[in-house]
Specification:
This protein has 259 residues and is α/β, with parallel strands linked by helices. Helix content is 17%, strand content 25%. Helix 2 (205-220) packs antiparallel against helix 3. The chain starts with 9 loop residues before the first strand and ends in a 9-residue tail after the last helix.
């Protein structure tokens, strides 16, 4: 037993654990699990089969990563959970592996999943995403880079949350949330830009003004969405944030939140 693995931990000989991984008391690491260097696994955490965890992650007490999906269609096919580097996963977080629909659940790098959050099967979480306490993601949810979700928020299956968006705590997400915005209210609606997140991540005043102009046309011009997108195409170069916003609306399957 390595000195950085507690004597009460249960480690499958069919797992692949880097020699620099630390494993706390009563933690369980099942067969086919892969754990990258520098990762610390807290007491009573459970890493299930077919789970891959990157380097320098911190898994806190009682989290359960890679268990089978809570999906009645799941037929015990071999699917995966992939977690990138330098993530912090707090107490009692649960993340399920994928189904045959996509084959995997994916969490990027530098994410923070606070206590009691749940990430269901086939979700795809980008980099630098924050899920606050008790956020509940249904299956097939996509959250793009640098987005944040406030505490106690349920997110409907197949919803997409755009990059740098922020969802206020306690609200229900049933439609797509476009990039760079703040969303709040019941039903969830556009509540302005995520100014705090944009400034914190280095967006310039000119970039923020451009985003304001785009969303003014979409949400305050009284145009239908298709007409608003046509006006944007006619008025702006379809590059950078303009292209990202237009593409998000054009490719939404569930529909996008309104004002």
């Amino acid at each position: 037993m390595q000195p950085n693995i507690h004597s009460t931990a249960i480690i499958s000989p069919e797992s692949a654990i880097d020699s620099t991984v630390t494993v706390g008391p009563y933690a369980i690491i099942d067969e086919k699990a892969v754990i990258g260097g520098g990762t610390v696994i807290g007491p009573c955490a459970h890493v299930f089969p077919f789970t891959q965890i990157g380097k320098n992650c911190r898994l806190h007490d009682g989290c359960a990563l890679g268990n089978i999906p809570q999906d009645l269609k799941f037929g015990h096919e071999q699917t995966r959970l992939i977690i990138g580097d330098q993530n912090v996963i707090r107490e009692f977080v649960t993340v399920n592996r994928g189904t045959s629909a996509t084959g995997e659940t994916v969490i990027g790098r530098h994410c923070l999943l606070m206590a009691y959050a749940h990430v269901a099967h086939d979700c795809r979480i980008g980099d630098h995403v924050v899920l606050a306490n008790a956020v509940q993601l249904a299956g097939h949810v996509i959250i793009d880079d640098f987005a944040g979700v406030g505490g106690m928020v349920p997110v409907h299956q197949f919803v997409r949350i755009g990059k740098y968006a922020f969802i206020g705590g306690g609200y229900r997400v049933a439609k797509d949330v476009p990039p760079y915005v703040l969303a709040a209210g019941e039903p969830l609606r556009f509540a302005g830009l995520n100014y705090t997140g944009l400034k914190r991540n280095g967006f310039t005043a000119d970039q923020i003004r451009l985003i304001e102009k785009i969303y003014f046309i979409i949400y305050q011009s009284r145009l239908y969405t298709a007409a608003a997108l046509t006006r944007i195409r006619e008025s702006f170069d379809l590059t950078g944030v303009v292209s990202e916003i237009v593409s998000f609306f054009e490719n939404s399957d569930r529909g996008v939140i309104r004002r």
